């Protein structure tokens, strides 16, 4: 980690939104309901693909984007010019500034079905317009963090490195790197993630570097010269055994690591480990990087591998490329001025009305046993429990500690703590039930 | 389409890159190979998941980003401060400007295994640093376009509307909307896509709008008042039949459409169509929007549905969330100054050396029969063929016609033309072989 204040701010975020958020706003402004006090909540009805738990990520990135969620200049002109909104709505948007409350699960925290991951309270108008942006950020980042957590869990004490940028949208790749680090990855290849969030970046050379040179030896010499003996040499461009011998011949016992990026990694790792030891390089490490996911990592547990570079499967959520989080109106002021619960009743997509608060129930040994979600009631800590709702925004003011590089570092520590608290069954990769049940209290 | 010049330019793109691109650059600058003339190519070894064809998207977005691919200010400082690069490399990057040639398949075009989708020629240094960014853009955008094309193909003449923003990273959502439109979608819910690319945006109201009001009737009245009788009313918040009756009672025969977002869509569409007809609303359309993909769309072909709103499965590539495109050095200048083919030989990930050019072979009826890829040779048009490589950049200068809103519109037309040219089997949704074989000529 290289945490420090970054000068980076996101581009305007206000149009990263569905058209209907603004048509609803316009109708509500006209009929007088726009200012009704409202409670929206982000939650998921299920853990996808039989996962045992999910990991929250993206909240900090959303809060950074919230500051740039303004309607002005050419974007506001666009909305009027194309008839998305009328001039009254344009005037409202030009003045828009979120003035409400935002609470939720901190990044790195585990989530389960019906966990109130984020709760947004304010007028209908100001909470409505944030829907799409909030869901985009949380659904993608949490999908990556949830997959990443299974990978770091399967890897045990061996480091996992994020290398999936080329398999994700260019900006999604930055978010993926951030989410992976939150879930325990030790570094990323993505430079923009290093720049924005202070995370450690890593990388040495690709096959093209070997091919650029007239022979492998020239490439290795050049890389050792430029990066030092501690670098990682990629040894599978031509013949792996010949490459390892050459690498040791050139670098000696100080050679940092060799990288395998193709073939049967378990078999090759054993051969390369034997060869390195035989050549007098017991301290040279082996890193593997080809099509890894949590299952492949678990399958390599007995192989002499020192670190894992994970790409495609990480940034695409290892089979779950998006979370199924939704943003639902669960309570709003009625004509009489009282807050009342509301819920959609239709088939299969019903929601539970009422304002939620959550805590993680733990037994006397500190092991999590239940996710307790109170509906219009705050669940009572029985002595060993841990409250889960954190305050992020108060009266529109962003509270300290949830954004920037430091927040990523803290989220990584929080993830480690949360994982240590879950029952051991959380580490199971097979499909099954959530590792702790969610209990709704009202 | 609402094509016009947008004032939008992307944020700096140069760090949307893997760390190792710059460490390779640094070593190559030191050893003198950085200026070797090189040819890199983007291609995929396969079509994932038994798809019959893929659709290229992202090229225009990459070309827009290439103009912002500059190393300066705080980003360049970051690279030096964190030791990613030395000062000589920093000096080189500060002056960086791509000066080479870029050719490839136009957006909207079909691609097959080994199609040279993009070819970048220049010095090793200038082509190397673009790798990750190019792949991020093409892999994501083409994954979405490829899925979208199967959906528009399955939908036939019924419009498909993109509504997946909340299930994709916030910026990926914009690219997904653009890619979907290229592959035949008629509009998107994503406002930023409308702003940047001039594509049509659509949307009316969500369940939260109904819940905001004291009853469904108040919500419908408000929406009809604000949006006019031609709007689409969401009728499944409580009871569908009661909602349809109320909608017709309030709007009369002019009601534009009703939307179904849950339940068994085929069964409900039949019931709602009958009810609308019975109530004297034969012109009121039915749009459906719940968990659709190409298979669900095909399954609804016989149902009285007028348009499809597609979300999650579109923006996640319908099971293929990223393309498997790679960027490989296929030829480079040797020590003697001659360009020679190069290729990685290792297991399973081998590449084919040599500079590629492609054309689509067509029979006398204009039906595509083969993808012809010439290796260090330009395949000869036999009279009915269509050359596939388009020039995008010449000596570093972006050529006209490949970026901005107009390029999206042209790509959409190109997609329609390409699809009309492929054999009918291209429309099969089952897993199988590419609909035309790729023939390598050398």
From TrEMBL, chains A, B:
<dbReference type="Pfam" id="PF04095">
    <property type="entry name" value="NAPRTase"/>
</dbReference>
<dbReference type="Pfam" id="PF17767">
    <property type="entry name" value="NAPRTase_N"/>
</dbReference>
<keyword id="KW-0597">Phosphoprotein</keyword>
<comment type="function">
    <text>Catalyzes the first step in the biosynthesis of NAD from nicotinic acid, the ATP-dependent synthesis of beta-nicotinate D-ribonucleotide from nicotinate and 5-phospho-D-ribose 1-phosphate.</text>
</comment>
<comment type="similarity">
    <text>Belongs to the NAPRTase family.</text>
</comment>
<feature type="domain" description="Nicotinate/nicotinamide phosphoribosyltransferase">
    <location>
        <begin position="161"/>
        <end position="328"/>
    </location>
</feature>
<dbReference type="GO" id="GO:0016757">
    <property type="term" value="F:glycosyltransferase activity"/>
</dbReference>
<keyword id="KW-0436">Ligase</keyword>
<protein>
    <recommendedName>
        <fullName>Nicotinate phosphoribosyltransferase</fullName>
        <ecNumber>6.3.4.21</ecNumber>
    </recommendedName>
</protein>
<comment type="pathway">
    <text>Cofactor biosynthesis; NAD(+) biosynthesis; nicotinate D-ribonucleotide from nicotinate: step 1/1.</text>
</comment>
<keyword id="KW-0662">Pyridine nucleotide biosynthesis</keyword>
<keyword id="KW-0328">Glycosyltransferase</keyword>
<dbReference type="GO" id="GO:0034355">
    <property type="term" value="P:NAD+ biosynthetic process via the salvage pathway"/>
</dbReference>
<feature type="domain" description="Nicotinate phosphoribosyltransferase N-terminal">
    <location>
        <begin position="15"/>
        <end position="139"/>
    </location>
</feature>
<keyword id="KW-0808">Transferase</keyword>
<dbReference type="InterPro" id="IPR007229">
    <property type="entry name" value="Nic_PRibTrfase-Fam"/>
</dbReference>
<dbReference type="GO" id="GO:0004516">
    <property type="term" value="F:nicotinate phosphoribosyltransferase activity"/>
</dbReference>
<dbReference type="InterPro" id="IPR040727">
    <property type="entry name" value="NAPRTase_N"/>
</dbReference>
<dbReference type="GO" id="GO:0005829">
    <property type="term" value="C:cytosol"/>
</dbReference>
<dbReference type="InterPro" id="IPR041525">
    <property type="entry name" value="N/Namide_PRibTrfase"/>
</dbReference>
<dbReference type="InterPro" id="IPR013785">
    <property type="entry name" value="Aldolase_TIM"/>
</dbReference>
<dbReference type="InterPro" id="IPR036068">
    <property type="entry name" value="Nicotinate_pribotase-like_C"/>
</dbReference>
<dbReference type="InterPro" id="IPR006405">
    <property type="entry name" value="Nic_PRibTrfase_pncB"/>
</dbReference>
């Amino acid at each position: 980690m290289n945490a420090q204040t970054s000068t980076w701010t996101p581009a305007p975020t206000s149009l990263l939104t569905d058209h209907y958020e603004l048509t609803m706003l316009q109708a509500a402004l006209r009929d007088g309901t726009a200012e009704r006090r409202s409670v929206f909540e982000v939650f998921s009805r299920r853990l996808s693909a039989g996962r045992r738990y999910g990991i929250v990520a993206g909240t900090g990135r959303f809060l950074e984007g919230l500051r740039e969620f303004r309607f002005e200049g050419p974007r506001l002109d666009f909305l009027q010019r194309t008839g998305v909104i009328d001039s009254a709505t344009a005037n409202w948007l030009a003045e828009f500034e979120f003035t409400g409350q935002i609470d939720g699960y901190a990044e790195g925290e585990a989530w389960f079905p019906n966990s109130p991951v984020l709760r947004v309270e304010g007028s209908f108008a100001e909470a409505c317009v944030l829907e799409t942006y909030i869901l985009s950020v949380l659904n993608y980042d949490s999908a990556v963090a949830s997959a990443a957590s299974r990978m770091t869990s399967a890897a045990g004490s061996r480091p996992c490195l994020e290398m999936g940028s080329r398999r994700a949208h260019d900006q999604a790749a930055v978010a993926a790197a951030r989410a992976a680090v939150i879930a325990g990855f030790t570094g990323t290849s993505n430079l923009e993630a290093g720049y924005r969030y202070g995370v450690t970046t890593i990388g040495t050379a690709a096959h093209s570097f070997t091919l650029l040179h007239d022979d492998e030896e020239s490439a290795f010499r050049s890389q050792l010269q430029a990066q030092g003996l501690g670098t990682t040499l990629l040894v599978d461009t031509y013949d792996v055994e010949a490459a390892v011998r050459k690498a040791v011949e050139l670098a000696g016992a100080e050679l940092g690591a060799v990288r395998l990026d193709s073939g049967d990694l378990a078999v090759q790792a054993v051969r390369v480990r034997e060869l390195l030891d035989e050549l007098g390089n017991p301290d040279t490490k082996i890193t593997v990087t080809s099509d890894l996911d949590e299952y492949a990592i678990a399958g390599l547990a007995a192989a002499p591998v020192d670190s894992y570079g994970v790409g495609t499967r990480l940034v695409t959520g290892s089979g779950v490329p998006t979370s199924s989080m939704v943003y639902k109106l669960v309570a709003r002021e009625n004509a009489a001025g009282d807050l009342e619960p509301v819920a959609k009743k239709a088939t299969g997509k019903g929601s539970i009305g009422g304002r939620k608060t959550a805590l993680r129930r733990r037994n006397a040994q500190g092991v999590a046993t239940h996710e307790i979600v109170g509906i219009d009631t705050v669940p009572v800590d029985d002595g060993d429990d841990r409250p889960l709702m954190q305050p992020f925004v108060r009266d529109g003011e962003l509270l300290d500690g949830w954004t920037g590089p430091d927040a990523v570092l803290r989220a990584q520590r929080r993830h480690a703590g949360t994982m240590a608290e879950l029952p051991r069954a959380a580490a199971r990769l097979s499909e099954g039930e959530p590792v702790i049940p969610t209990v709704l209290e009202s």
